[in-house]
Amino acid sequence: MEKFANKKIVLAVSGGIAAYKAADVASWLTKNGAQVHCVLTKAAAEFVSPLVLQSLTGYPVVQDEFVTGPGWGIVHIELAAGADLLAVIPATANIIAKIAAGIADDALTSTVLAATCPLFMAPAMNTHMYENPATQQNLQILRGRGWQIMPPDNGRLACGAVGQGKLPAVEAIELELEQLLLAATAEPGRRDLAGKRVLVTAGPTTEPIDPVRYISNRSSGKMGYAVATRAAERGAEVLLVSGPTALQPPDGVRFVQVESACQMREAVLAEYAACDVVIMAAAVADYRVAEPADHKIKKTGDNQEMTLRLLRNPDILQELGEAKQQQFLVGFAAETHNLEEYAKGKLAAKHADLLVANDVSRADAGFDVDTNQIIIFAADGGRQTYPLTTKLAAADYILDAVAARINI
Ligand code: CTP
């Protein structure tokens, strides 16, 4: 079978001199079985003929948001829907700035804004434009949103200057795309979890000190909500048990709101017997306050110290592991050091089937960011490292690892 059979790729071309090289990339992707849909800015069409791209890919090239034709609804929405990858090659300083600002004033930028798939760009421009703090800050913003950004090469640029800004060799770009495409397996409309009952926990727990104060942690809930979202989209019947977060419950998911670890435990145990898969993405507090006050605690006189006695919370995942029947259990480990050793220890101690580990000391993985870089350890000895990607794409990796093991 061809390497990229069933992959839908949006190749977004912006208007730099390197735009003509996008034709080679389009040709290579097509030869390997992908459906390649090109979207061009007006300036790009000056550098590379849309007819070339159309002939190479066999699909109409989109340049205008307002075109209609058989099979086309709203063009940028249709283009983005179900894509496995969106790649901007080359990305000019202008298009990078527009994407970073969320501007959607042409077919390319509107498609980018509507895309929920893994995102890639290969910037190419004059060295000074690349090094300008505005461009660098924009790239930083995009990295923070999960874009995979390939740094430009050093060399002689079209403007005659020598420095960084050159589009990398097409073969090098192809290697990057291949890595992303083979890692991202989500096929459009795939409902491989239909009929499965999946319980997901997410967010922090809060452990009350008194009616106005609590102990908690920095979990945003984004990873767990992403897992619940994708599991529901892939056809599962999903129950999301969430600690307090600022997020909206995903569509099509049964939602139970809890605060403390003990409440989370009760909510999970009440549903456990009927579950096929439990994914414990919540950052459950390990300790709770032994005697929370029923009134607001007041400062007293000149007392400069206060002691809270803490009790160990029940370990929900461990309890589920010990009572396991048909359920497939997935735990998480957020570590700052000795990741592999701790992750494997947790996998065994909690009788989980998979342990999803991430290094929260990285700025682009872990708490309150939209990206994650995960390693999955399996009780069957499997171990796989995934590329840095959006939390939604990471959720798919996790669900792929589950689906592969529960025989669907
Ligand atoms: N977990 C749980 N109940 C707890 C604590 C954690 O179910 N009381 C689950 C989490 O949802 C996660 C995994 O166990 O899936 C995390 O393991 P844990 O060892 O508790 O993580 P840390 O508290 O970060 O571990 P440590 O203090 O050992 O670093």
Summarize this structure briefly.
This protein is α/β, with parallel strands linked by helices and about 400 residues long. It has helices at about 20-30, 40-45, 50-55, 75-80, 95-100, 105-115, 125-130, 135-145, 170-185, 220-235, 260-270, 315-320, 340-350, 390-405, and strands at about 10-15, 35-40, 85-90, 120-125, 150, 155, 160-165, 195-200, 205-210, 215, 235-240, 255, 275-280, 285-290, 310, 330-335, 355-360, 370, 375-380, 385, 390. The protein folds into 2 domains: about 10-185, Flavin prenyltransferase-like (Rossmann fold, 3-Layer(aba) Sandwich), CATH 3.40.50; about 195-295 and about 305-405, Rossmann fold, CATH 3.40.50.10300.
